[in-house]
Batch of 2 targets.
Target 1
Amino acid sequence: MALRTGDQYAEKLTKMQPNVYVGGRKITRDDELLQPAINTIKFTFAAATDPEFSEMACAKSHLTGETISRFTHVHRSIEDLMVKQEMTRVLCRKVGGCIQRCMAADALNGVGVVSKEIDDAKGTNYHDNFLKFLEYYQKNDVVGNAAQTDVKGDRSKRPHQQEDLDLYLRVVERKSDGIVVRGAKAHNTIAPYADELIVLPTRNLTKEEGDWAVAFAIPADTEGVKLICRVSAPRQRRELKAPFNTYGMADSMTVFDDVFVPWERVFMCGEWELGARLALLFANYHRHTYCGCKPAVTDIIMGATALLAEYNGVGNASHIREEISELMVIAELVFAAGIAASVKGKATSSGIYEPDFLYSNTGRYLAGKNIYHEYDIMAATAGGLPATIPPEDDFLNPEISEYLHKYIMRKPDVSSEKVHRLFRFVSDFSCSAFGGVNQYAGVHGGGSPIMEKIGIRANYDLEARKDMVKYLAGITD
Amino acid sequence: MALRTGDQYAEKLTKMQPNVYVGGRKITRDDELLQPAINTIKFTFAAATDPEFSEMACAKSHLTGETISRFTHVHRSIEDLMVKQEMTRVLCRKVGGCIQRCMAADALNGVGVVSKEIDDAKGTNYHDNFLKFLEYYQKNDVVGNAAQTDVKGDRSKRPHQQEDLDLYLRVVERKSDGIVVRGAKAHNTIAPYADELIVLPTRNLTKEEGDWAVAFAIPADTEGVKLICRVSAPRQRRELKAPFNTYGMADSMTVFDDVFVPWERVFMCGEWELGARLALLFANYHRHTYCGCKPAVTDIIMGATALLAEYNGVGNASHIREEISELMVIAELVFAAGIAASVKGKATSSGIYEPDFLYSNTGRYLAGKNIYHEYDIMAATAGGLPATIPPEDDFLNPEISEYLHKYIMRKPDVSSEKVHRLFRFVSDFSCSAFGGVNQYAGVHGGGSPIMEKIGIRANYDLEARKDMVKYLAGITD
Amino acid sequence: MALRTGDQYAEKLTKMQPNVYVGGRKITRDDELLQPAINTIKFTFAAATDPEFSEMACAKSHLTGETISRFTHVHRSIEDLMVKQEMTRVLCRKVGGCIQRCMAADALNGVGVVSKEIDDAKGTNYHDNFLKFLEYYQKNDVVGNAAQTDVKGDRSKRPHQQEDLDLYLRVVERKSDGIVVRGAKAHNTIAPYADELIVLPTRNLTKEEGDWAVAFAIPADTEGVKLICRVSAPRQRRELKAPFNTYGMADSMTVFDDVFVPWERVFMCGEWELGARLALLFANYHRHTYCGCKPAVTDIIMGATALLAEYNGVGNASHIREEISELMVIAELVFAAGIAASVKGKATSSGIYEPDFLYSNTGRYLAGKNIYHEYDIMAATAGGLPATIPPEDDFLNPEISEYLHKYIMRKPDVSSEKVHRLFRFVSDFSCSAFGGVNQYAGVHGGGSPIMEKIGIRANYDLEARKDMVKYLAGITD
Amino acid sequence: MALRTGDQYAEKLTKMQPNVYVGGRKITRDDELLQPAINTIKFTFAAATDPEFSEMACAKSHLTGETISRFTHVHRSIEDLMVKQEMTRVLCRKVGGCIQRCMAADALNGVGVVSKEIDDAKGTNYHDNFLKFLEYYQKNDVVGNAAQTDVKGDRSKRPHQQEDLDLYLRVVERKSDGIVVRGAKAHNTIAPYADELIVLPTRNLTKEEGDWAVAFAIPADTEGVKLICRVSAPRQRRELKAPFNTYGMADSMTVFDDVFVPWERVFMCGEWELGARLALLFANYHRHTYCGCKPAVTDIIMGATALLAEYNGVGNASHIREEISELMVIAELVFAAGIAASVKGKATSSGIYEPDFLYSNTGRYLAGKNIYHEYDIMAATAGGLPATIPPEDDFLNPEISEYLHKYIMRKPDVSSEKVHRLFRFVSDFSCSAFGGVNQYAGVHGGGSPIMEKIGIRANYDLEARKDMVKYLAGITD
């Protein structure tokens, strides 16, 4: 059984070179600022051996036959795709948001497929590199990130047209034993507390852009890597402890300042024709994953909305019931699109399954279009209290604590503590930097709605629909 | 092979007792007013032997092993559910709208499941009746309808509370050889040109309402049955012939004026406890079917919109591209929900599979909420011409025909005839009684969005979502 | 008092040269096909002397001091703008839709303003022509149309780039006594039963397009004019007479086959620089008018929805109440935008007031975006009956009439006739060619939402908003 | 001239009794935690004498003839209503959000009207109290709050049905020289740094609820008053100073622990019949004000969105242009509704004008429904950076500052500092507790959309709309 414990994971982090920057300081990876984020990852290790989750959360390695974390697995069947989606929903519910380890899994699957396709087309040897890396990854129950999004500079220009060529990460030197890369990847969730960084291109590339066609994996503390972070977590609690407030995340702008990558860790280097394939395939896996995690967010918003209504004594108000039904519809349409993407999934030449791009994009699109709307529904039901509830410290101040408990009461059979806990949860979930970050993540994580629309259009047989109408209207070309 | 031809079907209609009323007259079933509707049904017979469709459009009877029309089949697997949905989409595209024969198939499946469940619970013998009827239905490639919706009178009252007890169809007499029923079923598509009427309850029932718990099948020209119709079809063409304009439909208010039904054709009689089960199960099958037909309607609207833009010379206008993408999203979310409903489908005690109620409802809901929006998108792209295009007769008037052809021109490489054909199609599709009827059908057919929302809520584990939030917030009951 | 009666108006129509084509025939203007449309116009004459409406429906001529129809008036104040909007709403409610005579009034105002501006800029004499025409128009209580929209050919090309230069109406000859024009104007409501056609350009023009910069007024039966029509009216009734079904309209494609226009009827000829000004100014007036008529349509849809709910016995259902509130919001936001456009209106050099373009466009935009949504709300409340209700003829057939009356009953205290009347009204309003046409009119009449968005953007000080943010963010350029 | 300076205002605050609680501490009103909030109020004093704003920001007292702050004025005309709305928009733009002093002005207007109406009905003397208070308020350029919303307990119960009667503020004792009140008011923006609290009822009341029908004004540091606060302000800056980050607000739960109010400061006491009138009239004024402030928020979101697109090099992308147009439409419809409310405003018996309730509610409703949607538009254009941008401290860390500046670059002609400033502004505006609070304020401030819908329905003549349809359909009762 190739499973680590959360403590083993955290322990290993402490041994890494310090290259993480938070709030103006360079920190070591045991800094308390990273604890909420690390707690989320620890939960993924715990889930693997928790009977409630282990069936989903583990898989059997097709390389070694060993029991491994599903987060280190590649999809060998439609069933694998379906379980991945289901697991994502279930685990996200328990931490109240992003489970984070899916990103690297999605990157692995993408790199696995495309390294094989490059080899098939070019006679290269990338897929062997990949398989060796995968075996290492599975055996050591590695935590990886996916470093895809370049900082991108002027959005109206292509990579090779930027004034500063480093605005998309690129190869600056090819050596006998490896390559040297320079650039920066943005929005790198999990990177500051990951073991490995998995790097891949962000977009389609032209023949001038071979240097930008690069994919590889390296330890997160490799020389030349700098992780400049923004930590996001719910407000910490003094006494009103709650599971939600123990979790968190951090994103980094990950700078690659002439970083050396040995050849055995390179999965693409120069094959610009397959840049788009890899970029979109990762997107496909990741959008499919969103069809699992985003319904979990909706589950939480829905549960909070229903509980707010119940505690307020208006649990049966028809307008609230309608809004909650709206949340159900959103959650299940997104989830259904993920199921359809799985069911219509196909095996690639590597034996890895990819979900149907049209459906993974459609599901992610709907999720992205609705995240603010969902917060709106919760806010509308909550009333203004999540915005104006005095901080926990006031509830602990004996001079005024009694007033706060007296006046927060709603239905007589719900204690003031419960009301306090619920509204503070909603406040932390929505009237907080963390809430704002999650709104942005809901829009942009895995690709913005506008990107999915482009993806949907590109994969839709519109001509066939025109032909249907020509037939019905009696138009012959 | 138990397949009829369209001509055999039409020929049999001519032999039926005249009990169809259209436009103030009692007509025989070969009246030309019914021709467009009959053409649609004929197409379903043609499809069964057309290599393009036959694989989907046929199935193997589990009773006889014979090849039968899928419209006479009951679902024996998840695969059956998926093929039914796919077939529905494909066939609807070819007639430009409702394929109609699905309704009876959905009713058969519902009656098949529930007749068994009643027998299991009550020791009755309905399922044998059903199987005998099904065998007859399959062998003779029968065209049936589903007569479900009662006229319902005062919507704030239950069936037994109505001032006129006939406002929901009911048993008025039980005899040794059969039962006598009275009432009327509304919105009965296909009934005026069907062989058989399949009747089932419209809602949940209470113990006072045993007389309303009745399901049966009888020939459509049984004594006492009156079919009072509204025919809906695109405007007929004089010279500008087009496939779309050859099809149509008719709905009837079907009056049962003390109609005798022999016991062997009765599938439920008095078992009010299972009224809701049968009503909702038919709804479930039918909403699942909508997840196939409704995307076909969207396909047509999408194709027309794209073609309008192309002919107008604005095929690449970004705002139109966005709208078309919206249509893609709607079509595929509805379809995805249908797939999810199939994949999560379950076998019943009868061996017949039922789709997952939550997903069939979610898909149908989205379709119903968007039908007017889709017409809006098409209209916005079309401009005003579908509303003001002079009738075909003017195009045939030599005094003005040349003007019309001169001034209808758009892009020089698209002939005026093509432009004329497209805009007349769109006009017939949307600026017509037929278009209005299809908008209503899009909202209400198979159950209105409000009904689906109720269905979704009733089948959703909201308490589990509240519990997720209680856990995260640290609330213990 | 310069007011005609409806009969005087209709009488004059009979004396005009027959150049109207309907359904393949050339007809005279007393043809019964035009009667519903003519009835609508007759109502505008009746309203002028009806105490309920006359205060709004009349104005005092600033030329003669006489009492005139407000439909022949030009706006001399903000008050005039407000009363015009209010009157439009009130009168449209009474005919169940478009009151039609506003279009010419909007054209007159536009031509009045711009003819003066051309004279000011170019030293021409158009405004005198206008004033003489206006005096004639007022004295004779003339019914005019506004012929603006060209047929436009390839939408990606400008007028002078079309393969056929006539696809935008243009001057083909300039003579000493007048000009000769050729082309066709589309979607010309009221033209087939108007006294005069008022013609104006449809868009901005370039210096190559002087020939397309032309505005004038001529009698509708001038030689060379052909009015090829589509008549739109609710289904006619045999016995179940109702005001709604007595009204209607007709649109023509109006062909100008080398039509001579004397100079005294020309208001612009060659001044391409002011083409956009006139096109947009007419649009401005007409969109402002829409802020009156469109709320009337919403009033009717709202009233029908509320009555449907009441008769069905679900008048207090919360989801229907919410939908009706939505209709209230739409109606009043559109109306409020019209008020704001009036209040922010400004006098032009001619002394005529123009409404604020931003607000007239914003109001019209919202109306255009919602028309299908409003039909949706009505349909959702109505249920399927408007789509499947058998024709009036069946209700008159003694063999089945009793069944229909028995089974259409809803609440016991609402007679079957009332229910019949209401559902037939809703069916005629929405499940009819007339309904489809009104949906298109709701989207495109007065300019499509996309045109209003363009208008809004063009008139919005976005730079000022950027500057606000620069200030707040501390960005100095 | 009765105008104070900001410093005079702040100076006076320091002399007040400390009864403000923030973050677990009791503070004095010169605590730095309150500075951002106080800065906003100071700006209102500065505006009164700033030539850019003074014409709007000042008014002439109808009591003394002196020049006073418009925030201390009551509306004596339609013009006053219009200027108030316009001023609100203009001033809110400068502080990047709520200008706060409007609330007390709205309360004053409400109390002014209703105190007169009570006197008229009951022969009481409240209006004199009001006028004396108003004169004091104007002469001293007072800063007031409006304490309306009770904490409300069980929302399914009325005030007198609550288990704890104090859950709505009430009179617990009537004395010869005044009254004693107990309870708490929630969401009291400005209260912790206001001179005076103006208290009024939150809802309609029944005859059992005379004790809850109470309105009065008292100094904010009156004995028994406790202000338990939540401070909301953008993150403070170390070096990257920006106006936006200097402003803020604080809300309090204001506890009245048996507070004595002298009779001359009481404006209502026991007249439950007018409770609803006063509650709704304040709501009316405040919703009208929202028709000014909310468009300012949209202005800022719009400007930020446009600037983000510009800096990103996609300023002309069509999908962004469409979204910005959407923001324009929202802003101007809300503003138009405010104009309509002013224009349709009416004088009350006190001589004070009240805006039209239907339009003020319609405008506020639209604003409340769209606030999350607007944040969504901004976020969609911004991309993920506002969520992941490292804190200012990292930009000040010389070890990594250069990387951050290098990789934040977008268009080459926009400096990294400008990009940094813009994205930090957007991050502070939306990925912050302050942003979340403003979302809630946008939904609930001045009354939630659901409250406005109720208000709209209650004031809408739906019966008249039914009658229109009855007429058109030929239904006679």
Note: The first strand of chain A starts at residue 20 and ends at 22.
Target 2
Amino acid sequence: MFQEMLENVRKRHPLIHNITNYVTVNDCANILLACGGSPIMSDDTGEVEEITSACGGLTINTGTLNQRTIPAMLAAGKKANELGHPVVLDPVGAGASALRTNTAFDLLSKVGFAVIRGNISEVKTLARYGGATQGVDAGAADCVTKENLEQSVAFIKAFAAQTGSVVAVTGAIDIAADSKSAYVIFNGHPMMSSITGTGCMLSAMTAAYVTANPEKVLEAAAAAVCAMGVCGEIAYERLGPMDGSASYRNYILDAVYRLDGKTLERRAKYNIL
Amino acid sequence: MFQEMLENVRKRHPLIHNITNYVTVNDCANILLACGGSPIMSDDTGEVEEITSACGGLTINTGTLNQRTIPAMLAAGKKANELGHPVVLDPVGAGASALRTNTAFDLLSKVGFAVIRGNISEVKTLARYGGATQGVDAGAADCVTKENLEQSVAFIKAFAAQTGSVVAVTGAIDIAADSKSAYVIFNGHPMMSSITGTGCMLSAMTAAYVTANPEKVLEAAAAAVCAMGVCGEIAYERLGPMDGSASYRNYILDAVYRLDGKTLERRAKYNIL
Amino acid sequence: MFQEMLENVRKRHPLIHNITNYVTVNDCANILLACGGSPIMSDDTGEVEEITSACGGLTINTGTLNQRTIPAMLAAGKKANELGHPVVLDPVGAGASALRTNTAFDLLSKVGFAVIRGNISEVKTLARYGGATQGVDAGAADCVTKENLEQSVAFIKAFAAQTGSVVAVTGAIDIAADSKSAYVIFNGHPMMSSITGTGCMLSAMTAAYVTANPEKVLEAAAAAVCAMGVCGEIAYERLGPMDGSASYRNYILDAVYRLDGKTLERRAKYNIL
């Protein structure tokens, strides 16, 4: 089934508007092209509504947000909602500053998100907004493990129910869930955390996947998460004796470019809970 | 003749001021170094006139423009004109939003450009500014093909006459023209569209070429376009079985770094119309 | 001794807040991860104090500074000083515009820097702020050479005494000095100047080194400078016949990722003056 999700991206070439941070913006543009989509980056209030109207989907990423770009995030998000375009939120750094946390809360209250994709710590921060307590304090180590998996899945499903979004939490184990079902995904490699931007790239790619598969948001988000993990594995297997993190980054993007649906299907490792 | 253009860049090391988007800015800086020039990036009105005064040429790229950087584009452009420095315009996204289109029009009315470099859709948008109709609707598919080549060349020459700029339109077939002559260039590879920034990089490199060859702006712009295409071919030939778009990007920059005048001359494929 | 410095970075994983330019920001984030630290990029006055409080060290880089980010640099710098976090200044372009020079002067007057890292021209510009004349005009060629080494070391020590900072000047020969001792470092390769960002990356990495080695700021800064040079050499040795500047950049980051303390110690070439 992930095969179909990937193939729809390659067939439909979704155009994705990205309001994102300047650290990983080039990687986000390149991964969108590599997976079969197209990127437009634009963050000025004077044009974001028009730009997002011409696109199929939108990613809002709060890394390096500033006073100028925050209103653009809200304006673009509302416009995309009006038009029925899927919007992906990557709440980078929610919890790290009041500005980021409050911006994420404000976005959650004013924009409907098809998918929220973050790490467990960011997602816990967001969950507190809605007054959630169940599971917020799960996982003392602040990561999803086999030991706290059941509890983590319950927490993520509850947050998905509360927001009406698919919630994708990535880490050593990835979980993509709506209120009823959760894909628990075991692909990926620890070396992915040795480069910046794997999360941002995944969020951008998720927007392409859900835009190309509008009827199957959960499956599409899970497929994107799984594809990123598979590419992290393929890239790792390719490393030579002199290669380090820069080559690894390139190899991940190369793998995304080359990935076909059959390989994704064959290498995918997940359970549905 | 392209050989001489390239060698002048390597000999004269033109210093290029760039006001450009944050998506591909790193690639623009690196291609300027790779081709033999030097980059300075600066976009604050408090310094752009001073910065551009210390440079030999200027690139204005309207990708990810914003309310803060638009006045800086105008100020730098005017200053460069005063000093007789060549200015290259890359009207990224002209036609995609009123802000970008109006900014491009405003720049065209207030700044003289040595070269305007864009895709056919962006250049058609600009041509409408001057009230041009001839050829604006050429090419239903919105790209230059063998079938519409004559019409496209006529359109581009007319726009060059109207603006007094050399106009370089890149796509499957590239055209660089002034009002009288057009270089129709057949180098390049379709895979170049699978990475972000080949257009932006070419605009930055074009500024280096015209700055190092101030007496021969058309030939210099054509040489830059041709060099980019040749490097796209060399990079493609180098791809291994695991390589994808990230390696391809690196190989293009590597090829620009290694390109010599003889290779450029030998591999160049163009007609003059 | 450099071995210990490097190993402390890998052991302590310093979290570094970076206010930096958008040209090389991705490389700065990736080199911090590659050397064993972690990056956070943030430049809005609404959050920089909070972000820097959560970090161990701070880098302020004045490339592509603007009216919005300059107050953030000052606010973050003061906060880091209050908390006793080491702050590294990279005065990119000091001397190239009044805005950059005045910003650097303002930062110097209001923030205490553990390390100032720049090229000789930038550091001379800063030295003029304090009214220094000794050695400011050393080196007509504006670079440190064997011929002007003694004079250059004296100048850098004097500037270190004046500012209370360790001063690291990089070029063909690198010097890292406090008021009393100077490490004169002969590692590195000329090809490092063919890519953008080796200076910015070094400044970010220096912040990681001094944050992980708070008792030995001079030695830590010298170790970072030396590590960057060694990685430039390793990367150069790895270049294949088709490789150019893009591969070289990747190989440098790869080498930083793979570098261990023993290799650093073995390859380090320096004198203490």
Note: The two ends of chain C are 17 Å apart (CA to CA).
